[in-house]
Amino acid sequence: MSSTPTGFFSFVGGLSRFGVKALASAVMPPYEWQFFLREMEDVGWRSLPLIAAAGLALGVVTALHTRGTLVNFGAEALIPSLQSASFFNELGPLVTGLLISGRVGAGIGAELSNMRGTEQIDAIEAMSADSFKSLVVTRVVACIVVLPMLTVFMDFTGLLGGFFSEHMASGISLQLYIHRAFNTVGWVNFIAPTLKTTVFGFIIGAVSCYYGYTIDEGSAGVRRAATSSVVMSSLLVIISDVFLVKLIFFFFPGKAL
Amino acid sequence: MSEALAVEFKNVSKSFGDRKVLQDVSFQIEDGKALCILGRSGTGKSVTLKLMIRLLRPDSGSISIETEDIDHLPEKDLSRVRRKIGFLFQSAALFDSLTVANNLAVPLHHFEKAMSPEDVQHTVEELLAQVGLEKDKDKLPGELSGGMRKRVGLARALILKPTLLLVDEPSSGLDPITAGEIDALLLKVKQERHTTLVIVTHDVREAHKLADTLAVLDQGSLVGYGTLEELKRSENEVVKQLVSEP
Measured between CB atoms, which of B78, B85, B91 is closest to A119? Predict the structure, then answer.
């Protein structure tokens, strides 16, 4: 992205057009199911270990921190509900978005830029196949579909980590932990924040595909595409989160935490 | 009677930003003949090939493939014309995630959707045998040498039996023996299938071997066009340097 105002607006315009084109192409036949399923596997299935490890660790750590504070007020019974509220509302969606922008965004940016540099995209176009549809649309849609699923997985591994921590500290049973965790959260606290990750998925997919598909500068370009994909998609995920949280408050006042 | 035209460039110009890559270039290639495009780096040789298959579009002028103006064709007709063109890219452009056999099968899956898996496999194996790589069909491109990659790229370019074969720097990065093997394959394709060849090269020796006609580009302009003997009589310094006996 250029540091000049013209370059900035040119980047924003280019990225916006690219994203809109990806969404519009996604609903137009033909549908590239084979490529889409392969991307689902790559973006979703192969991210599960990372999400599971991060969720468990984050669950343990947040439970430990919360206990350290709440025990002073004799309120450690609130730990499960604080865990569920923090994971469902913010930690799960945001951390999943950031982890996927790192793992998947860098991969997509580097892969597509390499394909551009080695003329693989030209080879697809030379066969009159739609490279945008098979390479970009499938990845963007896969990110949109997979992000909420991974977020749910992150939420529940986070709660599991919290349970392990609490069980070690207080001997709480799984049944009681679950009862306390879900006692105070409603469907809105779960569904709205989870669905907002479709926007994160769109951002990650569109930004990383944009850099990968348009940068053609050899090996230096591959590096630039990978780095820019991660930095820009992470930044946009965080910024969009602010607006999305405000939006959830607007539509469900008093519900979203 | 003269042969039908396979390719015709009429006053083609192409720029990238302020940089003029081709300026008012015109030439013709007859069906079944081989044209070698010579010139120094950055003179628009590869751009010329990409214009022929509409990977790039000219700023002005027209490009006809077998009398069809490729720049104004709708997508459906463009696909039909591209079906007749094979392209061996400079880097071979093999799909990294696919095996050699699957790389060759991609054009068949795209253009010959009715073909049975057995026929696809048979066609792929036949082509791989022709380029001497039948034992490497399950390898990934990353496991192949530069020469092997070029041969796989050539097999993929030939799999739909194109009438026009575009070849970008067939010998770049290869040792003389492997480069000679690729040239021999190209000559065989031309002679046995009557395929029109357009070859971009730096290698004058290769051009001597393959070409019926040579075109010399310099700073985006066509400064020489004709047979080797004709170009040897050219007054242009760049042409003289390029076509002198190696």
Answer: B91
- With beta carbons less than 8 A apart as the criterion, state whether B24 and B221 touch: yes
Query: What is the rounded distance in angstroms from the CA atom of residue A153 to the CA atom of residue A52?
Result: 7
Tokens standing for residue B55 = 């990977």
| Angstrom distances, CA of residue A116 to CA of A111, A154, B138, B207 | 9, 34, 24, 28
d(C-alpha B130, C-alpha B185), whole Å: 9
pLDDT 10s digits, B87-96 = 999 999 999 9
| B-chain residues near A129 (CB < 8 A) | 110
pLDDT tens-digit readout, B51-99:
999 999 999 999 999 999 999 999 889 999 999 999 999 999 999 989 9
Yes or no, beta carbons of A126 and B83 under 8 Å apart:
no
User: In which order are the strands placed within the sheet that holds B5-16?
Assistant: B19-30, B5-16, B60-65, B68-69
Taking residues A19-42, what's their average pLDDT?
Answer: 92
- Single pTM value for the model: 0.88
Say which CATH topology domain B5-243 has.
Rossmann fold (3.40.50)
Tell me the C-alpha distance between B25 and B13, whole Å.
7
Chain B residues in contact with A120 (beta carbon < 8 A):
93-96
Sign of the Cα torsion A11, A13, A19, A21 reads: negative
Angle between the N-to-C axes of helices A138-170 and A5-27, in degrees from 0 to 180, rounded to the nearest 10: 90
Strand order in the sheet with B164-168: B85-88, B164-168, B196-200, B34-39, B213-218, B221-226
Strands (E), chain A: none
Q: What is the ipTM of this complex?
A: 0.90
Cβ contacts (< 8 Å) between B55 and chain A: which residues?
Answer: 122, 125-126
Q: Which residue of B has its CA nearest to A122?
A: B55
- Residue entry with tokens 């280019």: A14
